[in-house]
Specification:
Elements: H1 7-43, H2 46-57, H3 62-76, E1 79-80, E2 85-86, E3 91-92, E4 98-99, E5 104-105, E6 110-111, E7 114-116, E8 121-122, E9 127-128, E10 154-156, E11 161-162, E12 167-168, E13 177-178, E14 183-184, E15 192-195, E16 200-204, E17 207-208, E18 214-215
Helix pairs in contact: 1-2, 1-3, 2-3
Length: 221
């Protein structure tokens, strides 16, 4: 028995090792961009440096493109788990962005100061800027472009699904689904389906327990 090995365990170990090696190679490949980013960050700001690098990386197609983007953002963002998928055309504007495990970011999304908790799904063209007040608008004698805004972190809870072309300006609690094309202007509770402009709760997501009894998912999370 001492010489016996579990084939499944061996396969898992080999697969994990290969993934680690591929991720290391991806980091080496994007290392010139990382050096450029860190150098430019010292000359201006990390956010100012992030945008042009993000634009370059967004043009890389396919799974290879996602792998290279993740390799870069693991070091350029506040948090980016290696299990993340980042689609073609995705742009980041804030290095304070945090991306948890197994997050999927669809093509052409644009993200500012946002936290995406684990298992979040963003469909194509979702926009999550740094809150609703990225520019000041109170002074009529000063152009909006130079009025300071009030940047705010937007939090998307674990296991949420945000539909295509939605715009999210407020927090979304865990396991909530947002319909395509919606505009989220107020915080949404956990375990609901929401949609519209502005987004409102359409229904709750029912939770079926082991004994078959259904209960409302509209809780504090």
């Amino acid at each position: 028995m001492s010489g016996w090995s579990n084939p499944r365990h061996t396969t898992t170990v080999v697969s994990s090792t290969l993934k680690s090696l591929i991720r290391i190679l991806a980091i080496l490949f994007v290392s010139p961009l990382l050096l450029s980013h860190f150098f430019l960050s010292r000359l201006s700001s990390s956010d100012a440096s992030l945008e042009p690098h993000s634009q370059v990386l967004s043009l890389l197609p396919g799974k290879t493109g996602s792998l290279l983007r993740v390799a870069f953002y693991r070091f350029a963002l506040e948090q980016c788990d290696p299990t993340v998928t980042i689609g073609f055309g995705v742009l980041f504007s804030k290095t304070g962005c945090r991306i948890g495990r197994h997050v999927y970011i669809g093509p052409r999304c644009q993200l500012g100061l946002v936290t995406l908790e684990e298992d979040v799904l963003l469909a194509p063209a979702v926009q999550i800027p740094s809150g609703p007040n990225t520019h000041g608008i109170d002074q009529l004698d000063v152009p909006i472009r130079v009025q300071p805004g009030d940047l705010r972190r937007v939090n998307i809870g674990r296991d949420c699904w945000v539909g295509a072309s939605a715009i999210v300006l407020a927090n979304i609690r865990e396991q909530t689904v947002v319909a395509a094309g919606s505009v989220v202007t107020r915080d949404l509770p956990s375990r609901v389906v929401a949609g519209g402009i502005p987004a409102a709760v359409i229904r709750t997501r029912e939770v079926r327990s082991k004994d078959g009894v259904e209960s409302s998912g509209l809780g504090g999370g």
